[in-house]
Amino acid sequence: MAIGGWRWGPVNRQELDVQDFLVPDITCDGCVRAITASVQRLDPAARVEADLATKQVRIASAAAPAALIGAMEDAGFSPERAA
Predict the structure, then answer these.
(1) pLDDT per residue over 39-54, tens digit each?
(2) What distance in Å separates the CA atoms of residue 57 and residue 61, rounded to the nearest whole number?
(3) 8 lies in a domain?
(4) Calpha distance 31→9 (Å, rounded)
(5) Rounded CA gap, 76 and 35, in Å?
(6) For labelling, which of 16, 17, 37, 49 has a CA lying 20 to 30 Å from the CA of 10?
């Protein structure tokens, strides 16, 4: 299923919440891999997608938004909740 420019398969919203973040210092696919690895250490079932042009990261996870922000910070990034 496409949501805007995002390509998502089915998401079981009873288990996973979709959260959007602005990550101004994300610049490449390596950044996306680093964020994905850090988030999946927190929640192995999490799904991460990023739009490098808009610096947006979308995460489907059962983890709390604050925990996801912490995981991205642990990977060396400066995320904030998207409006």
Answers:
(1) 999 999 999 999 999 9
(2) 12
(3) no
(4) 22
(5) 9
(6) 37
